[in-house]
Design brief:
- Strands 1-2-3 form a three-stranded antiparallel β-sheet, with no helix packed on it.
- The radius of gyration is 12 Å and the shape is flat.
- The two termini are 21 Å apart.
- The protein has one domain.
- The longest helix is centred in the middle third of the chain and has 5 residues, at 14-18.
- The protein is built from one helix and three strands; from the N terminus they run αβββ.
- It is mainly beta.
- It comes from Trifolium medium.
- This is Gag-pol polyprotein.
Length: 48
């Protein structure tokens, strides 16, 4: 398969559950609350 595993490596990690984060493979995002604010980490985008 020709895929980049950088985002996929995050799925199923114990620290994600401990941090209360929510992952989305469909939208390739990781969301969690830090300091009362919602933090959204986007997956890698291919720019052409």
């Amino acid at each position: 398969m020709n895929v980049q595993a950088s985002y996929s490596c995050l799925l199923g990690r114990p620290w994600i559950h401990a941090a209360g984060a929510v992952t989305s493979t469909l939208h390739q995002k990781l969301k969690f609350v830090q300091g009362g604010k919602l933090v959204v980490v986007n997956g890698e985008e291919v720019l052409m």
